Amino acid sequence: KRVAVFISGGGSNMISLADACAASDFPAEISAVISDKPSAGGLAKATARGIPTYAFERKDFASKAEHEAAILMALDDIKPDIICLAGYMRLISGAFISRYEGRMLNIHPSLLPLFPGLHTHQRALDSGMRLAGCTVHFVTEGMDEGPIVAQGVVPVLTGDTAEILAGRVLTVEHKLYPLALKLLAEGKVKMENGRAVHETAT
Ligand code: GRF
Asked: Which chain positions carry the site (Raises pKa of active site His) (predicted)?
C-alpha cells in the first residue's frame, strides 16, 4: 500500500512510520511526505531517507480551497492508498476528507474522546487522571472525533509536567502509529457506516 504522510513540524511520527515501512515484510511504503510548512524539520528527514517531499505554504494561496486543491493535485500524481496525518496542524475540509474517507488516519496525543484539540497533556494533568495516552483514528469532518483504530496508554506520574508527559506519550505514539497503519494496510480494520470495524481474531 502506498502511503502519503502529512506533517507540519519535526515529523517524529513520520520517521517512526518510515522506519516501520522500511521492513521488507511491512504491508505499506511511504510514497511521499507533504507539509503545509516548507520549514518543517521533517521534510529534511524524509529527503534523507529518499522519500519525495512536497511543501505547500498556506500563504502562497489565496484561500483554503486553493491550498487544498494544490495538495489534491499532487496527490493525484502520488496516488496514495492511505494518508497518515502525523503532527499535521491544519484542519482538512470535508470535501477533501470525503475523497479519502476510510483511508485517512490521524494520531492525537490523548485518550479520545477525552481532550480533543490542543494542550492535551496539561488538560490531562489538570483533570487529575492517572492515565494518559494517544489515539489513532480515522479522520472525519469533525476535529479529533473519527472512529478509533488503536490507543496506547501511559501512567501519569507524580511530578509530571506537560513536557514530561508529552515525551512519555510520544514514545508510545511512535509504536502505536505503525501498528495502526499495518492494521489498515492489511485490511484488518475498516471504516463502515462511520464506525471502525476490527477483524475478529480467528
Ligand atoms: C506531537 O505532539 C504528537 O503528539 C502530535 O503531533 C506533535 C508533533 O508530532 N501527533 P511529530 O513529532 O511532528 O510527529
From this structure: 144
Which residues fall in the annotated binding site? 11-13, 64, 89-92, 106
The pTM of the full predicted model, rounded to 2 decimals, is 0.96
SS3 call for 179? helix
CB of 10 sitting under 6 A from ligand 1: yes
Please tell me the distance from the alpha carbon of residue 72 to that of residue 6, in angstroms, as a whole number.
12
ipTM of the complex: 0.94
Q: Which amino acid is at 134?
A: C
Other Cβ atoms less than 10 A from the Cβ of 33: the count is 29
What 3-state class would DSSP assign to 44? helix
10-residue stretch averages of pLDDT, the chain, 202 residues long = 98 98 96 98 98 97 98 98 97 96 98 98 98 98 94 98 98 98 98 94 68
Q: What angle do CA 165, 182, 10 make, to 5 degrees?
A: 45
Q: 136 CB less than 6 Å from ligand 1?
A: no
Nearest-atom index, ligand 1, CA of 42: 13
How would DSSP label each residue in 75-127?
HHHH--SEEEESS--S---HHHHHHHTTSEEEEESS-TTSS-SS-HHHHHHHH
